[in-house]
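I am writing to request your help with a piece of structural work I have in hand. Thank you for your consideration; the sequence and its tokens are set out here:
=====
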Amino acid sequence: MQSPNRLNTTRSNDKRKLTPAEERRLIHEYGIRFEGPILTSHWPPQYSLIYGKLREIEGVKYDQYRSSLDSSPHRVKRVRSLNRAHTLIRAAHDCRKSSLHEEEWRRSTEAHLLKHFDGEVECPARQLCVCNPNETIRDELSSDVSRPFLTQLGMPIDDKSAPPQINVKKPDIAIGLRRDDNIERLLGNNENVAHSPTLNTPEMLFPFLVLEAKSEVGGPGFQSVETQTAFPIRTFLNIQRSLSRSTNTGGPLVWFLAYQGEEWKVYGCTPDDRGTRVIELWQGTILRADCALQLCLIIDFIYDWAIEIYLNEILDCLFAGQERALSTYCSLNDRTLEQITELSQGSLSTCTLRDTISYSRDEEEMTTSSSDTIQADNVMSLPSERADDTEMLDTTIGADSPSSATIVESYPEADDMGVIRNADEVFFTFNHLVLPETEEELISILTSISPNDFVSEVAQALLETFCVEEPLVLNYEFINQVEELWTGSIGEHTSNAEEPVIANISFRSYLRHTDWQVLRNISCITATVRAINRLGSIALNGYDALVDGAYWVASNPSVDVVRSLRTLSGQESAATATENVCLILRKGPFEERWTKGLEAGDLPRRIWKGLDANTPSIPLFPILFYSSAVVRIEKRSGTDLGKILPRLSRTTRNDGALILKRPASWYRQCPKYCLVLFDGSDVEDEAHMGRTILQVLSHGGVYQEIGRGVQEVDRVAIEAWAARLLN
């Protein structure tokens, strides 16, 4: 029997696909209207305040915003927005230059914009109060949610009120409330209230944001994006409206983000007596500084709206049952929205929730191990967000298995659990931090890296990485060459290219814990004589004559020392990524050389994680450079790094692939299994991929968490995945 608390039913995908014209006709019949930029007088009156705030953000200019930093009482918030805009611009330039497709555009841009929704929220400013008991309960429910939102990729939307001709829609991204114990209790008292758009993802409640993307290269245009998302928008609005069915008052609102390449649009979606209005509120290209900044501010505004208003109103309505309508937007006043806009733009002069919000993004990794990968120490490392290490052992796979037909029937979604990655398709990142020379700015950097540690201790750790007794002395010309080689572009460097600097250059290769993408990173931390001595003064209690730059002679290494890492391919690429290889460039007696060790990448990893989560109170754009590109590595023979790079076992090398199982600490949105190919096979040949999976499985080339032997459910699921590909 269909539960009343979801707006879905089983919908077959075995039906004729509608033509675009047929689907647009159905959209029209169901009263879903997409309206381009319209006069403010034509906006729905009850939403004019909130729409008007986006129009105000549209007037923000990058140069003015940046020039006002010194006079702004909330400089840190503005610097954070500028840094995000700067990163977004660079990512867009790299994607466009490389003519990347939709998936690469999404990886390069969405994380910068939407990371707040995946982060933790905490409010340490909690006090005893004498509020109304009902309000106190509601506040406790709201304030105790550390991660109130849930982001889902490709979530199937199945609404029984949609026309039966429409196949199941899977928006690229949907964001809603996260189910927790508090909300679960409230839902128990509101059994007739719809709250989830799908049976497959019951953790997603009351979605309020949907994103759909198309690539710039050969993209079908925004009309196709709108058509594809029309019915999911309607479904999300209907879920919100279910909270206020007993009254004529309604205030549901869904945000719709659409983009094709660098062109972005933001829509506000609301119901009316004719159906659904989807109104375009903003459009711009993130290649322009003004638009990139505005988009960052708009996303911040939506986040603050969701925290300050939407979450609280949903809890209020659930707590009061259907006695109260969802009047979130009708009850808004000018001051409420003024505060939210000021929060997003970093100019709020009064204390509100955002002042006590801290963001943390667990993008970093832990070391894990397996016994079939590395000949030297039998260790394989998978990146994860935990700080501690989790051992991973290779599995001993049994020979017995049920038939493919039985597997497919028992695991109907097994093919959605696995992903195939080509080890030669690599996402490259480059980071460069130039340590400032003034004590104030240097302390700001140090406190951002590790806010809970003493500044002197962080300075000491950073100082030790430079190995000042035998420093690696380079000039910025070499750093520029490395960045151009690594990413194909050069950042906005303002330093003297010939000035000698002491450098810490490290390399990391790992698998991204959200989607198994192979990543390679070069991290550069450089400092002048004055910056090193200033750092020494902080670390060594005032001693500011640590080094004498008069004796520094910049070496002139060939950029080939880095090229050898960029061109790793085949089994070398697979092995370095699965082992989470970390290398550091050291000064040798005759030439610079790479040395191996996890500690080589530990501090740079802490630095970038700290700067990302705790933006220092100085602009990073002249200090921190970031760029990225996805590149298909061509096969090559041999490498001069054979002594320090891991090697796969002979059996695995002969198989040309290995299978990895997602560690428990990784994001659940990451596919559970990954087939890593390194023999040049065509990943589009599904039958060959299915046979490869079965071959690797039969040879025991599967790696998972602690314990020998794969669990039956894993073996069956992997075989089901292979069976789907073979069929």
About this structure: The two ends are 32 Å apart (CA to CA).
